[in-house]
Amino acid sequence: MANDQLLKDFMAKVIAKNPGEVEYHQAVEEVAATILPFIEENPKYKTAKILERIGEPERVILFRIPWVDDKGEVQINKGYRIEMNSAIGPYKGGLRFHPTVNLGVLKFLAYEQVFKNSLTTLPMGGGKGGSDFDPKGKSDAEVMRFCQSFMSELFRHIGPNTDVPAGDIGVGGREIGFLFGQYKRLRNEFTGVLTGKGIEWGGSLIRPEATGYGQVYFAEEMLKTRGDSMKGKICTVSGSGNVAQYCTEKATELGAKVVTLSDSQGYIYDPAGINKEKLEYVMWLKNVKRGRISEYAEKYGVEYIAGKRPWEVKCDVALPSATQNEINGDEAKMLLANGCFVVSEGANMPSTPEAIDVYLDAKILYGPGKAANAGGVAVSGLEMAQNSMRFGWTREEVDAKLLQIMKDIHANCIKYGKDEDGWVNYVRGANIGGFVKVADAMLAQGIV
Ligand code: NDP
């Protein structure tokens, strides 16, 4: 059967089984488009229905999160944990607190996580979770009460050898602290059940930096294949949270100039570049004051473009680091028309399928999130290893391991993604590279 028809038939079943979960359909289709032809050539995966099984979560936990706000009013949120695949290790993946969270969004993220975790070379299965809770505008006390209520249910489903959540959008150091405190209280155990912990209580050096640093290391590796580097490159970054901040730091350290940052309300354009001192201000603004990125424009007298995304700004390298589907087909065309030839994704699935087609048709250096943002979960894996050893590595040691992992991921993408003309399709490379290890483990473990 032709590949197009195979994909159509496969997706018709996925959509019928998971109605309305549009982000999930999108993530599965992107993977299936490259894996189905591979499976045709490797029939052992076909008869065992590996791709069909990978798409069905091993377990989905849905729960109620009641809590009381500062006015004494009762609030109710939805809680989720998707335990997607444990073929190569305990479920591992972040928690997202954002009003847009629903089952389909978390299933897409958990699905991506399975392949990403496999690519890191570390023994981690895939999972994801979170809530439709919006931390914006909430007091620290409200966030704490919410986290305690969330963990009062989640604790019975997770553990250092079962499922190890981490942060994601809306879940940073503050939230991980409250969640860990409640887990410890309920279990009476000090154990590596969450990653992204504070350095004084079981965290790993470089974990906060890992996703953004890894995203830039991956861009550098892609550029090396063309004898080029990040030095002197103009970069546009979206988002201004954890990933965007450290992506800006590393890109600047490697000699590039980052000219934009954004949040859900608009973006700032600073043609002089966001240097170390300005980035320190951004970190204070977003992590301590919890303000809006427009305040940067007021402070430094630069342009603030409300209600828009930064992809209209001329750049060599685009580093999307905010959220899913934040670059559409027209924006991708605009990027390329302005000379952009590298896209390295810090966010998960930031490019729509139309945008990805634009990159692949133009044969630019495109690093999909699964590969390019795997540094975060890789260092989470290193945090788990350090917790098990009850010992910690230095900053230099963890950073060196992160760099090596990003190089290994890049090499794996080349192994499965290099075309005859020498161009590397990193989408195919990452999907097949991530798939093979999980699929072989599933074959070995029988029909479970
Ligand atoms: P943060 O919560 O720290 O920051 C998120 C940033 O993205 C904020 O600037 C936020 O703006 C913006 N944003 C969120 N939702 C939207 C939206 N719907 N439209 C426009 N902007 C939005 O999250 P992280 O930095 O941790 O995560 C960013 C991305 O990176 C996500 O896709 C996440 O899944 C991915 N990722 C994160 C990893 C990690 O280690 N943290 C690991 C791998 C991937 P605002 O403040 O206005 O909401």
Describe the 3D structure.
The protein is an alpha/beta fold and 448 residues long. Among the domains are: 59-191, Rossmann fold, CATH 3.40.50; 210-367, 3-Layer(aba) Sandwich (Rossmann fold). It is built from 17 helices and 12 strands. The strands form 2 sheets. It has a 7-stranded mixed beta sheet, with helices on both faces. The protein has a 5-stranded mixed beta sheet with strand order 1-2-4-3-5, sandwiched between helices. Strand 3, helix 5 (103-119) and strand 4 (126-131) form a beta-alpha-beta unit. Helix 8 (207-224) packs across helix 9 and helix 12 runs parallel beside helix 13 (353-362). The protein is globular. The mean pLDDT is 98. The structure holds NADPH dihydro-nicotinamide-adenine-dinucleotide phosphate. NADPH dihydro-nicotinamide-adenine-dinucleotide phosphate (NDP) binds next to helix 9.
List strands and helices in order, with pairings.
Blueprint: H1 3-17, H2 22-41, H3 43-47, H4 50-54, E1 59-68, E2 74-85, E3 91-97, H5 103-119, E4 126-131, H6 140-154, E5 163-166, H7 173-187, H8 207-224, E6 234-237, H9 242-253, E7 257-263, E8 266-269, H10 276-289, H11 294-300, E9 303-306, E10 317-319, H12 329-337, E11 342-344, H13 353-362, E12 365-367, H14 369-372, H15 375-389, H16 395-417, H17 426-444
Helix pairs in contact: 1-2, 2-5, 2-17, 5-17, 6-7, 8-9, 8-15, 8-16, 9-10, 12-13, 15-16, 16-17
The structure holds NADPH dihydro-nicotinamide-adenine-dinucleotide phosphate.
